[in-house]
Amino acid sequence: MFSKLLKYELKSVGKWYFALNASIIAISIFLGFSIKTLTDYAENYTTSTANHYTQLIPIILAIMFGVVVASAWIATLAIIVRRFYKNIFGREGYLTLTLPVSTHQIILSKLIASLIWTAFNTIVVTIGVTLLIIPIFGLGHFLAFLPQLAKMLTPAEWGIGFLWLAISSISGILLIYLAITIGQLFANRRGLMAFVAYFVVSFIVLLVSEILGSHELNSDLTIHFFIYSCIECFIEGAIFYLATHYLLKNKINIQ
Which residues contact 100 (CB under 8 A, 6 or more apart)? Predict the structure, then answer.
């Protein structure tokens, strides 16, 4: 039954989301060659006024690319919020909570689906940025830069860093779930209260982190920093998960 829940979550995403992410790839290729062409043209053009405007166009195109990327991230966030809210507290809520599955399975199916969407969006953005950079600087310079990038951290630090990225993503998604669930405990303005709950919980987490002195480890990207951050995010995520599970199971309030 859990696999069916997960399959349903993945199928719930509309084709528009994949089209939006595909547009990042297409726009990246177009912008990369456009910026390269305009930059070369500006270097060889003698008129100062025309040169000024020609140099301005790549900046505008880069901003357009940033807007598209931001739209994709916002769309991913909207899907995470919408699927959790609609499927549990919306019209589908009664059906979802009466299925022969546990509350753990409901939360985990949505969490895994959200992680897949987040990873998919991250991969697409990474490919898009790569396709944007290669035409501008050249494939040779890009390939020459990769070994230098790899040497910035040790293999162990890269591994722990990616692990931290995964755990922090899980913790962030669970925080959203917890905030939405807290918002449902109120009789009115549940959306607003969920928004407030998100910032209140975030502030509490930040305050506790400062009290424990974790900020002292944030100055250097060492393996100790990543390990500490992984442990911190894991504890936060576990608390968010258990709190969400408790509220869904014992304090659920569906309109």
Answer: 1
